[in-house]
Amino acid sequence: MNLFRIMALLAALLLVPGCGRKPTHPPTAKKPKPTAARLSADEKALQQLGQQVFAAFVKGDAAKFQALTVADLPAAELEVALRKVRKNEAHQYISRLEAIPVDQRNALQLDTLRLSKVFVASPKAAFADEWPNLQTLIRALGDTQLKFFNNQTTTNAPLDWAEAGKPSLVISINPQTDIILPEARVNIVFSADGKSYRLQLSNCAKLPGHDWRVAEELRLIDLTAEAAAEKDWGTDLPAALKQAKAEGKRVLIGFTGSDWNPSCIALHDHVLTQPVFRDWAAQKLALVRADFPRHTSPPKTQADANKLLLRKYAVVGFPTLLLLDAGGKELHRIEGYENEDVLVWVGALKKKLNPENE
Q1: pTM of the model
Q2: What domains, with CATH codes, occur in the chain?
Q3: Which class for 90: exposed (0-12), middle (13-18), buried (19 or more C-beta within 10 A)?
Q4: Separation CA 268–CA 272 (nearest Å)
Q5: How confident is the model at residue 174 (pLDDT cuts 50, 70, 90)?
Q6: Which of 17, 277, 329, 354 falls between 20 and 30 A from 188, CA-CA?
Q7: Contact 183, 87 (CB under 8 A)
Q8: What is the Cα–Cα distance from 184 to 30, expressed in whole angstroms?
């Protein structure tokens, strides 16, 4: 969970369509990436943040890492900053909703306008009702980040950070600096033990009065293993159905928001890229992915095909996985992911695939 989802959990104002944060990617054509000489102050700050996070991992310095996170801010400073964000949101909602003719405002918009005005009139009192739960959630985020750090830097970690070379690339992706709560994505690519890795800071935030900080759970991705796992999945359902018929397999189609949905990311990391699943799936399944990313733009033909599949199978949330027969008939549906162990998850799917033998 990141800071933006934490805020959304408690902000009733975010229910208003068209208000709040901008889309994660702009609707217009992407601008060319700036050269190093033209980096903005925010982009330079994000690169520095990525380098500092990487250095903390290499040194195994948990305190240094925590100091770079939103959760490490003093409670009083964090409360002031988030209250300001909420107040600015409320002003924005008022401005947008009052621009709608009175006779065209629906019940939700009218209620949101009322709540926004109440918040602006007395932000400290209004935010006081939200702050205790919000603070608890942010502390939990900090605990999750620290647990990840410790898991990656202990003697049982998957790589030896002492062997890690200088990051070959630190990228700030689509920094959104013209919104109420600026956010950005930072990837740190490096090599260690003869393999390539990506340390991913999926969301960083710039709170009022503070520098950029890590505001989400982190991911460490083995790019070599990732590339191998990606080859398992196709994007053409008709081709997969044909393969399933020829080879006596079933089809597993996964609907996912691969680069933004926390449950999709967790399922990918903890199940779908693991040898336990991959080895079994290679024998029994033809795999198809219908992806709905936010930080990249698939080819239009693929995006359109995925939307058709979404409607055809009445998928309403991510992740959703469907087990199909070779004719495309749905046999079983899995909605969501509750952090099950890979053995448990695969075992449950095996029983649905072949209950008499499993």
Answers
A1: 0.76
A2: 3-223 (no CATH), 232-353 (3.40.30.10)
A3: buried
A4: 5
A5: low
A6: 277
A7: no
A8: 15
